[in-house]
Amino acid sequence: MKSLRHIPNWKLPILTVALAIFTLIGYQIFGKIKSYDKSAGLELAMEKSKLNRETQILNARTGSRVSSKSNSQNKLEELTPDAAKKQIDDFFSTTSDLRERSLFCISIINRLCMEGYSHEAWELIDPNYGTVRSSGLRAFFASADLPQSELVKRLSNLDYKTDASVGFGGFVRRFAPDRLVDFFSSSDYAALKQAMHNADLPLNESGAISESLQIILLDSGAADLESVTKAAASLNSEGLLSSNELMSLLDSLPNEDAFYKWDLVGSIPEDSRMEGAVRQKRNSLISEMVEANGSLAITKIMASESNRRESDINAAIGAWTTNDPSGAASWYGVNQSAMSGQDRDLLGIAFSKEAASSLEFEGAYRWAETVQDAKQRQELDDLIKKQQQEYELSKLE
To answer: Are the C-beta atoms of 44 and 355 separated by less than 8 Å?
Structure first.
């Protein structure tokens, strides 16, 4: 007879590799992504000198503009509104490429706002609907040196769906993660939401929040990791950041520690429409955690009070017995006395099903014997017998 503490080698060793996907999101125009340069700013092909990125980030996050003149005077001469208009006119007269025009307008509007000419920058936004106008609106609402209430009023006065969406996306980029949470609890947001609702204009809060948080991560990496994940969890719980966007954010986190990501994915509320995708993400992280530290992974999962706990346990045992079956059985032997009867049954069922799926039917029956609940034990025995019979029949074919 086989020991309950030593499972046979059910499966060929399989190296489980969990891919960490890092999504770099910057300004996207005609499908081509422009990334942020951490040390300098937006990488604009037509701009020979680059803006002081540190000042731009500070301005965008605090909402209280600091003068960039002292920081950037050695890089760029002060740009006046008249000079800006002439540069745009000259550039447009020689360049018909909408992408290049858009990027050029982004750089001009950002610089004007940083120089204190926000009202003038507004007047230079392309009046014609399309890519160039959208880029200008996004840049303006991200960088304008104006009170929040005035920016909200300007957003409320936009009467075109695309304008409202891209403008709001730029506006959301102004905030640091903690202030982002505060804004969505403010009277300014409530007033803006009501005005947009009355005008039948979309805000797309979830997309704007996700893009803003990913850009912050791209700018600062691990420095803002804790505040970004905290804000994401809070906004997701309030229904402002969708579970789908939250999972996309998970993939972009500059941290390969699956245990860290597990705490964030655990905050995703149960939603039948998203449960399949959430289950897939949880299983992927469970595989990563088990590969890194099986005993810590199962202990963390067992401590959960989530309704997903049973499925998580099954996924963990499945991954662990694939990579290290004897380690999984040894852990159970050491810790079973400290478990509740219900937890011992949950684990016994999980171990038994994994053994049966690997055609180790003797091991499956032995694990089934550890299940104390008579009904569950009988159902498990019936399942194993059925699988064994189907296997025996398949050999005769």
So the answer is: no
* Alpha carbons 97 and 288: distance in angstroms, whole number: 46
CB–CB of 33/103 below 8 Å?
no
AA identity, residue 335: N
Beta partners for residue 28, in sequence order: 33
| pLDDT for the residue 56 | 42
Q: Which pLDDT does position 245 carry in this prediction?
A: 87
Half-sphere exposure of 10 (CA within 13 A, CB side): 30
| pTM for the full predicted model | 0.61
Could you tell me the pLDDT band of residue 272, with boundaries at 50, 70 and 90? low
Quote the CA–CA distance of 86 and 80 in Å, as a whole number. Answer: 10
Taking the C-alpha atoms of residue 142 and residue 60, their distance in angstroms, rounded to an integer, is: 6
| Contact between residue 131 and residue 99 where contact means Cβ atoms under 8 Å apart | yes
Signed CA dihedral, 356, 360, 361, 362: sign only: negative
Q: What Å distances lie between residue 35 and 139, 223, 252, 329, CA to CA?
A: 15, 18, 14, 48
Q: Are 100 and 132 in contact (CB under 8 A)?
A: no
* Cα–Cα distance for residue pair 179/14, rounded to 1 Å: 45
**H helices present in 63-176, as ranges:** 69-72, 81-94, 98-114, 118-123, 131-143, 148-156, 161-172
